[in-house]
Structures are given as C-alpha cells and as structure tokens.
Design a protein that fits this description.
The structure is a homodimer.
Chain A: H1 11-19, H2 25-43, E1 46-49, H3 51-66, E2 78-82, H4 109-116, E3 120-125, H5 153-160, E4 166-171, H6 177-183, E5 186-189, E6 209-214, H7 217-227, H8 245-250, E7 259-262, H9 272-285, E8 290-293, H10 298-317, H11 319-324, H12 331-341, H13 345-360, H14 363-368, E9 371-375, H15 392-400, E10 404-411, E11 417-423, H16 429-444, H17 446-449
Parallel strand pairs in A: 2-3, 2-4, 7-8, 7-9
Antiparallel strand pairs in A: 1-3, 4-6, 5-6, 5-10, 9-11, 10-11
Chain lengths: ~450, ~450
C-alpha cells in the first residue's frame, strides 16, 4: 500500500498512511500541492486552490494531534468541493461572474462534518454556471479535448486526475453520475434526503441532491456516512439512525445479489460502440446474475415531470440574477429561466406530486433484484468543451430520488471510460453499495478477470 | 374525582377511573353512549357514531386486559376524530356528498397510535366541506343558534358538549384554534411537522397541520405526545426524540414566564365587547407578566402569502372533484378552487419560500418571552350556522407553522366563551404548554380568582 503513489491512494489508505506516521502531514501535502498545481494547469479542475488555506488546515490537524486528539476517519484526507458548496475560507462563486469573490459566512453542514472527521478541503472545484448547463473550463483528464461532463465537472475531473481521493458534487438532473461515467470514477448520489444541503446553492429544492466522487466504493461509503444526517436546516433531510454504510458496503451479501438491466427507452440514442460495451457487460455477468427487462412506462412521463419541476424552480432560484444581471448569464441559462417562468402552476404541482409515485413504481423491482442496472451515459465523454453531454440516463432517478451509483467498469476503443449505472431501493443505500461491491469484486477485480 | 360526571372528566381521569376498576369499561360506555346519543340530537357534532364499532373496541380492550396486557395511557378514553382522518371501521367522508360512504383501507397513522395507547374512537366528527369554508350542520353547545366555528366544527363541539375529553382536528388556516375559542375548550395546533398527516385528507400539504381539542392542557399534552413522531410517510414530519410533553407541561417553569400581547393589525375588526375582555385580560395579568407590543410588519404580507399557497394547493387537491362532480361542490368552494387555478406559479413559489422567513421573524420574541399572546378570534361565535367565522387571527401562525394554543379563559355577556391564543417557539411545544399551564394556574384557577 505504501508503495502506491499519493495520487493513487484511496481515502482510507491516506488516512492510515498519515495516522500511522508513514509520512508527516506536511510532507504529504508538500508533495500533493506540487502535483496538483502542476497537473491542474491543463485540467482546470479547481477554480479556487490556495496553499495557505490548505496549510492552515493541515497545521490545525497536526496541532490537534500533538494535543492528543484522536485522528478522525478522514484524518488528512484531501477533498475537493464543487463550487456551489459554501466554505468560509475559500470563496464560493457558483460558476458565475455574478458571484465572483463571494465569501460565505459559514461552512455548509457537509463541509463542517467532513472537517470534523479530519478532512482537508484542498479547494473548490469547477461547476458549470449555477450547476446548470453552461460548461466550465475543465477538461477530461483521460483526454483533454473531451468534456468531463457536468455540472460537477471539476469534482469528477479532480478525482480522475488523482488530485483528491474524494470530491463532493451534486445532481439535479444528471450532474454527478454522468461526469463520473465520462471521467471513469465511482460516483454516488444517495437517496434523496440523506445528505443535508444547507449552505449549498439551491437550484431546484425538490430535485437537488448531494453526492460523492471517489476511487473506491469504500471511500464513497465513508464520505456519505460522515456527511449523512439531518442538521435541522434542510426540510428535505430526514433524521435517520446512523447508517453503517462502510460496514455494510464491506460486508458479504447474505445471498448472491441479482440485478436487472434496463436498456431504457433511450437505447437507440446510445453510441453503437457503447451499446456493444453494455451488451458485452450483460453477457459477462450471465443470466444468473442479470436479467434484461423493459423499464416501466412511467419513465417517459417522468422526464417531462422532471423538466417542469426543474425549470420552474431554477427560474425561481435565479430570479435576482435574472432581473439584475441578465447580461451576465449565459444565453442557455436565460432560455432555461424563460421556459421556467412560463410553466403553469398546475403543471408544476402535478409534476411535483408525481415524485413519490415514480419512486414507488420501482418498488416491485427491488423485491426481486438488489439493483437496477442501466447505462450511465449515451456514450463516452463528448469531444470539445462546448457541451457537457446529455443527462437523460439520470433524469428518472434524480426525479424519483433513488440512490444511484456510477461504476467505472467499461472502456471504449477511443480510450475513454464508460460507466455502468446501478440504482438501489429508496433509503437502502447500504444494500446498493454492498451489491455493487460484490458485482465489482466478482466480475471485475484483477483476480477474476484473469 | 370519581364524583365528577363522566362528561366532565378529563382523559387522565377517565383512564385512571377505568384502570383502577371504579367502573367497568362496558358500564362506562353504556352510560356514555346514551349521553352522547341523546345530546347529539341537537348539536350534531358526530357524523358517524356507531354503537357496534364502539362495542367492538371496548370489548377488545377488556379482552386484552383480561389477557394481562398493560393498559395504555389512553386506556378506555373516548376520542372523536374529524371526518377527514381515515379510519378502517367508520367511513371517512370529508364532509362532502361526493365521498359519502367512503371507507378507507387503513387507519391514519395518528388513529393507529391513539388506539395502540388504548383510546376508543367514539365516532367521526363533522367537518366543513373538505375542511374548507362551507359549514357543517354542527351547533355550538353553548348556544345552539351560534356556529361552533370550523372547519373542525364537530371536534370542538364534541369536547365542549362533554361527549369526549379529547377530539382530533386540523388547521390549514384557522380551523382549530377558532372553533376552540368559540366552543370554550382548549385547542392545540403543534409545530408544523410534529404530527404525521398520513391517511388524512390533503387540502394544502404546505399548510395542513393536525391538532387536538381537550378539556385540560395535560390531556392536550398527552394526546400530542402519543400521536407525535415521524411515520416515514409524511414528508413534512421530522423524526425527533420523544417529546416528554406531559412531564414538561406539568412541571414548574424555572423562572416565572413572561409573555407579550399582540393586539394584531386586526384589532379594529374585533367586536368591542371582545376588545374589552382582552383589555381586562391584559390588566389582570399586569405589566410584570405581559407586555403589549406591535406585531412585526411581515404579518400583513404573510396573510397574502398564505392565501396564494392555500388556494393553489386546495385547487390541486380537489382537481378530480372539481372536474367530475362540480355540481356537488358548494359555490364557495368552487370559487376558491377557481381562484386557486389562476395563481401564477411564481407567486406560489414566492409565497411558499416565505414560510420559513415568517417563522424566523418571531425568533427574537422568544428570546425575551415564553409565549406570544393574542386574540383567538374577532369575537364570540357568530350567530347562525351560515358562516364559521373569520380565521384571520390564526393565518400567520398556520403559515409560519408555530405551535399555538387556545386557552378558554374569557366570557362575554352573551354567555359565549372567548379564547386567548398563545403562540410558542417552533418545535418548543413543551415550553409553550408549560408556560400556558403556569398562566392558567396562577391567574385563572379557582384558588387564585377568589
């Protein structure tokens, strides 16, 4: 493990590496900061990355340790935060010139929780404009001429580039799982209501959900477990008993999990090479593990309902910017806001009312299967930085609020990664992580693939 | 205590009376059923009241007891339920001919909890049409020519008439505290999110709140404590540690509570005699206890915001009835629905967004005062059954979701009761009940008033 380069280590490995004293935290960060500064000149994953802020954090951690404080489960682990998440030391600019230089009064709840666990916020990662469609300057680490996806562009790229083992992002439509697929990293959007959004830019309160990028499922489980829990300020977050996600993720399933694969109604839009990759994936798992099924009819309507809720709430959230600084918004965003302002109230209420029903439409699948598997994207990362790609493969799951993972298991001949999306039962995030880990371990680990 | 008539006993007294065996449950109910059947011929508090359903429940309780089951905290206590609350034995008809004879598949969560605690559902109490404005046939027990208020008309009247010590109602605008004031009983609408609404007719999901009518504050605390808690099905209900409302309510405040009195912007609309009664109330408490203050400006806007959210959601909730059975809806309700359908989405989202802000506007008062006191109604119960009166005194508190009580402390020369409304800090329901009990005990109990 200690022979791994620092840009290859998982969060669990870094914590152990630093706690056990194989490296001092200052040595580790001297090396890491150089690596990131140099590497990010081409990738632009970070929009705010400041050596002094990092030094202040690592110094505090070292001092606390000297004073006898028990190191936390993320002790010394560098983390990137999508630049819609408030931090009191770094600015939070929402990917918009309108908020350039904006400092939040306090840390978002999830930042406070990560720091309490010992994490070091390495910097703020690039987001598309207000986490909507207008791209950031970030490049895909696998090929700089391709998009990393969005809106959590910088977070996905930062993990893929080895800058951080964990980065935090968000998903309102396809903003987390899609970039994870394009960048070839694990991505996780937990069940709606698991992670509090207090101190995070509100794009669409009915749909916004926080999530994690990482190099391993265990790291995903760890970060989610630490950030999970009602803080009393996010109406959508429910208090639940502490979820032992790490333990559950690491445990063996009581019986071999079974999965169903949805080709989805958008299968024909998928790039032929990606279709082949998914077909090969299904064949590799075999019929005992995976059953190919049709998706329930409701998903086509769900896409429309998602749009009504999303655009209406986006227009409401950005009303001040739209009124006072329209010229500083992209044309794409202005058009979205305009469309949002025209949605009739009744359509909005109808759409919002369907959220629970769409979620329930998948209940019966989880009586028979441990996970629903489907494509994570229409293909590998699109060429050029003009578009962050199509979120359609995530829309239904974001709408329903079901937990969903990107598993970076496939590759196409252009050398770019392609993700497998796995969806779990509502509030059964641990079972999803455990089933996913079982699948990866049994069918894609180095021992089994030999 | 045992010398009290059964129609004068509190829930705590009835439970003790039956558990200690001073009466058998069948004797008690034989006597009660006769009393209610006779009394309700004039009052019409109940819309469904069935001796066989009651007998089945009391028989089960007696059998359970014989089998050694510990009697619950509401053992044998008769309870009335507003007819928008689902029960599997009685029909639930929403005060509308459209739903006549409708049987729910299962009990609402709060019914299940009350029954688990040993309560006997005596019957379903009259509600205005869909808990909106069109009156029920219920009369005010204090004077049959006057309205009991609404929409929880039957629940308020049933407690006032001595039919039940506890009845459950709901408040979206002023549907609980106002009838409590008109009927001269204690009423309590807890903090928004305390009582789950699963299995209750949804009129306005952002505003609907459940509550309790009773003859004593301890009974209010007991019923609320039993019904409190997230059931996983009501998005607005938050899991909280069990609230020890009964103990808190019964405890002595650490220091003498202080209150502020808001005359409210609607003081001039209050009936002169009621104004006098409130002035006398202020004088009775004295300056050390109560400070008369102006209400913050935001309340005038809050009334408009309440209207936007309320009518929009009402129109959405009743879409099927409006489309398929318009002729079976009252003109009043049709007009409300029509108005709701015309509200622009942006106004709705703006109004909904203000809910939290309006709640916060009162925070500073609770730094200085244990309760905000204000009139519970514009006067005593209006004459005639054509209108259930004006809910304006509750609108702001319903909108903000703050806990609010009716204290039946005053009377006017027409012999009708007049309530004092007391509002507490959000989620600090115990403190409100304790402060209210202190005030009643120190200034209005028989010993002190002599």
């Amino acid at each position: 493990m200690s022979e791994k380069l620092i840009n290859e280590m998982t969060a669990l490995e870094i914590q152990d590496y630093l706690v056990s004293g194989k490296s001092s935290i200052s040595q580790f960060y001297a090396q890491l900061m150089e690596f990131v500064s140099e590497g990010d000149k081409k990738i632009h994953a970070f929009v705010n990355f400041d050596a002094r802020c990092v030094e202040a954090q690592t110094q505090t951690l070292a001092d606390d340790r000297d004073l006898g404080r028990e190191p936390g489960p993320l002790y010394g682990v560098p983390i990137g935060l999508k630049d819609i998440i408030d931090t009191s030391d770094f600015p939070t600019e929402y990917g918009s010139v309108i908020h350039q230089g904006r400092y939040a009064i306090s840390n978002a709840t999830l930042v406070r929780r990560l720091k309490e666990a010992g994490a070091v916020i390495l910097g703020k990662t690039a987001t598309t404009e207000f986490a909507a469609m207008h791209p950031a300057a970030t490049c895909n680490p696998h090929n700089l001429e391709h998009s990393p996806g969005g809106s959590s562009s910088g977070s996905a790229a930062a993990v893929a580039a080895g800058f951080v083992p964990i980065a935090i992002g968000s998903q309102t439509n396809g903003s987390l799982i899609r970039p994870a697929s394009y960048c070839g990293v694990y991505g996780f959007k937990p069940s709606r209501g698991l992670l509090p959004r207090s101190g995070v830019f509100e794009q669409s309160p009915s749909l916004d959900q926080m999530g994690v990028f990482a190099r391993s499922l265990e790291d995903i489980a760890l970060a989610t477990e630490i950030m999970n829990g009602d803080d009393g300020f996010d109406e959508a977050t429910k208090a639940v008993a502490p979820m032992r996600l790490v333990k559950t993720c690491q445990s063996e399933p009581p019986v071999a999990p079974k999965f169903c694969f949805f080709k989805t109604p958008w299968w024909d839009k998928i790039d032929p090479e990606a279709q082949e990759a998914y077909e090969a994936f299904i064949a590799h798992l075999g019929q005992g593990v995976i059953t190919v099924l049709e998706m329930p009819e409701v998903v086509n309507k769900a896409v429309q309902w998602h749009k009504s809720v999303h655009l209406a709430e986006l227009a409401f959230s950005l009303q001040k910017e739209y009124r006072h600084h329209p010229e500083q918004l992209s044309q794409t965003l202005r058009d979205q806001i305009k469309a949002g302002l025209e949605i009739p109230l009744f359509d909005y209420l109808t759409a919002k009312d369907r959220i629970v029903h769409v979620g329930n439409a998948f209940d019966e699948y989880f009586d028979h299967f441990d996970g629903i598997v489907c494509p994570a994207a229409l293909g590998t990362a699109p060429r050029g930085l003009g578009s962050t790609g199509d979120p359609i493969m995530q829309t239904v799951w974001s709408f329903a609020g079901l937990p969903t993972l990107n598993l970076p298991l496939l590759n196409c001949s252009n050398g770019l990664p392609l993700g497998v999306q796995m969806v779990g039962a509502y509030k059964n995030d641990g079972r999803l992580l455990r089933s996913a880990r079982w699948l990866v371990h049994h069918f894609f680990s180095e021992e089994t693939s030999q």
